[in-house]
Amino acid sequence: VHTNYLDYVSREEGGNIKKNMVRSINSLVCRAYCDKVIKLSGAVQHLPKSEICNVHGVSPKFLEAPAKKALASQAASLSQAATAKKQPKGSGSGFSKGVYFMGKALWAKGYSELLDLLAVHKKSRGKNISLDVFGSGPDFKEIVSRAEASGLSMNFLGAKDHQDASFRDYKVFVNPSLSDVVATTTAEALAMGKFVIVAEHPSNHFFAQFPNCMVYRTEEEFSKCVTKALQREPEPLSAEDRYRLTWEAATERLINVAEPGRKRNLTAQALDQLSWRTHHLLTNIEQFRKFAGAGVGTRHAPEDLRKMDGEQYSGAGFFDRARTKKARA
Predict the structure, then answer these.
(1) Could you tell me which of 33, 34, 47 has the C-alpha nearest to residue 3?
(2) Under DSSP, is residue 244 helix (H, G, I), strand (E, B) or coil?
(3) What is the CA radius of gyration of the chain?
(4) With 0-12 CB in 10 A as exposed, 13-18 as middle and 19+ as buried, what is 266?
(5) What DSSP string runs through 61-91?
(6) Are strands 37-39 and 97-102 parallel, antiparallel or unpaired?
(7) pTM summary value
(8) CB burial class (10 A; 0-12, 13-18, 19+) of residue 269?
(9) What are the average pLDDT values for consecutive 10-residue runs of the chain, which has 329 residues?
């Protein structure tokens, strides 16, 4: 399980009611149909038969970046020694840019927390953190508007693939999101040899073991982390840390955690069977299917899926309303 459904649904209208219902449905389905549930982090709700293990890795392309930067830094140092000329500040590190954040432009993806942190920093320190932002999405205009109204120094540069070579120039990646289970972008930034600044949250426990990960608990600690990261250089990734971020290591973790556990007792088996029967019964009731968001007349698949018209099956399900609470102004 790698999505924090409870956080997303809690941000919609009627969020508390929906959250409790989704929690129950998730538990029911997992108990009915799963032999084992693997949660990528503790940010996911408690689920029957579950264990926590991060089984995600990053593309090898991200792990190539630190090696290339190390070579570039060595070349710059040799050039400096040969010419005996003073280098401009920061040119020997291979990082020519400061802080950035990337994520789909949705309040739930950490933008609300980010703007709050930047506003507190500005108020307490009397100056802004200059931040480049990458991402696009439904809440983009509202996010930009609030940033401008708050007088924040945020440069919105649109959506861009994290593998783009321009990201290698940044030294610090911030990700204040509390809705992630395990943030892929954070892992990728670590793989590229950057500092990452994240909140104390179950979704970040895997990353906290890396030397270049800075964890904050308060707004003041966030400001200190950013200041510290801009004044220092990230540590080179060790061979062990590099391997920990690969898909090979993630696959090994998956194989280990997927090992069958001890046999479930008769009470647990009875609950599994009851959960299956309950779910099977409910999903055969048309009114419940409509209420839960399955649509109208979807109990049986059409004869030809290629001719399926989604609008024909749409219905006013309780979970279909995509009206999200607006972030704090």
Answers:
(1) 47
(2) helix
(3) 24
(4) exposed
(5) HHHHHHHHHHHHHHHHHHHHHHHT-PPPTTT
(6) unpaired
(7) 0.82
(8) exposed
(9) 90 89 94 95 94 95 70 50 44 80 94 97 96 96 97 97 94 95 96 97 97 98 97 95 97 93 88 95 89 82 79 71 50
